[in-house]
Each structure stands twice: as C-alpha cells, then as structure tokens.
C-alpha cells in the first residue's frame, strides 16, 4: 500500500493537471488574439412608479444640471408642411394674444395621444413586467402599452389610434421602443404627419431618480430628417396617480373653432 505522503503527492499532481487542462483553452485564445469573453449585460433597471416632468416647465429644474436635457428643436418639416405648421403656430399665438385661444383636444375632452402624452403635463406612471411596460398619464387617464420582445407589424396591419402599436426590448439598461400607427389628426406641437410616422424611443436612467425618454420621429412624407426630442422625468416615490375624468369640462369649442368657457352650471 502507498504511504499517506504518496497519496498526498498523487492528489496534488492530479489537481495541478486539472488546472493546466482548464487553462489550455484560455491560453490558446490568447495566442490566437481572440477577444476575451463578453462581460455580463447591464442589469435591467426598475423604472416602475410615478414620475413627474423634469426640466422646462417641470418643478425642481436647476441651471447647469446635466440631468436636464437641452430644449427640443422645432420640427424639420418639408416645404409645404413647414408653411402649414408656421401658419398654425401663428394662428394659435394670435388667438392667445386676443384672449380667445383655439380649441384643442383638451377642449373636446380628447387625450393627447402619442408622442405628446410622454411630455407628462401631469404625472406619469410606469408599470414594468417581464412581457410589457405599461405607461399611464394622469391627464385623461391615458394608457399606453409597450409589448416586449414582439415583432412589429407593417403600417397596413395596424389600425391607426391615439397611441399606436408599441413594441420594445431591453438593450442593457435602456428600453428601446418602436411605435407606428398614430392617427394623422393626432399632432405633436402642431406638426403634421403621415400614416408612415414612426417613433423610436430610448428610455433610460441618467441618475438614480431621473429618467430620459429620447424620442425620434421619422416620417419620409413630412420630415426632411429625423426629429429628436427628449423628455426628462423625476421620481415621485410617494405619489399615487389621481383619477382624471373629463366629464364636467366647462370648456367647449364654438362654431369658429375657438375655445369658450361655460359660466355657471352650463345647463
């Protein structure tokens, strides 16, 4: 029989042989100049909860704050569409100056739709799950769904609606969403668009409590080039969205399209 020292020597030899064998593939890759194995992907962040618009007209904006995005540019519209947009903007300014604002979706108790709802005039809520991210804006109780890891349909397969059809996926810590099927009468900043409008979003945290939605609009019919705007949000950890039902709206549109206000009960 072998002595105990011999058994120990044999065990140590076997362990060294195993280490050398395991290291051989790594050494071979290094000799071939192969890239090292990829690092684990960034963890998907938890974006569930209530958020408020941050920067611009949002509360808490500070000068020289890198978490506040730059101002959004005007739409890069093509010639005839640019003239239409300029006329709409000027008409709205003139009406406001006279104290007779033009009727808007809000006058008719209609939701903003996409992409305006992402501007979060009122607080907004994200509900995150494995198969879907649901976004709810307090104003008009607007609900939008981003279906995760689903294929996008063609334009002809999607019935136009206020929010369109959104599909998305996570790229590391960024939620990437693709939306088509926005009704042509749903406008953002009064800019016209065709049924070929496509919205591409990259939603990600820029700090633990500030999130950006970098949203790019593409429309080969009306836009000279892609139009990118960025919305920023700040967490509201203790806030629960309130009910918003536009049933007692005192505003209405007259026969000329101006916004009017009912005095009293309106009956």
Which characteristics define this entry?
nine-stranded mixed barrel, alpha+beta, two-stranded antiparallel ribbon, 27% strand, 267 residues
Describe this structure in words.
The chain is of the alpha+beta class and 267 residues long. The protein has one domain (49-261). The protein is 18% helix and 27% strand. The chain has two helices and eleven strands; from the N terminus they run αβαββββββββββ. It has helices at residues 4-32, 79-97; strands at 49-53, 124-128, 132-137, 142-148, 165-171, 174-180, 198-207, 210-218, 227-235, 251-253, 259-261. The strands form two sheets. The chain has a nine-stranded mixed beta barrel with strand order 1-2-3-4-5-6-7-8-9. The longest helix is centred in the first third of the chain and has 29 residues, at 4-32. The protein starts with a helix and ends in a 6-residue tail after the last strand.
Residue stretches low in confidence (pLDDT < 50, at least 5 long) are 28-33
Total strand segments: 11
Whole-number tally of structural domains: 1
Estimate the mean pLDDT confidence.
Answer: 83
**What's the story with the biggest beta sheet?**
9 strands, mixed, barrel
Overall geometry: globular
Explain the layout of strands and helices.
Elements: H1 4-32, E1 49-53, H2 79-97, E2 124-128, E3 132-137, E4 142-148, E5 165-171, E6 174-180, E7 198-207, E8 210-218, E9 227-235, E10 251-253, E11 259-261
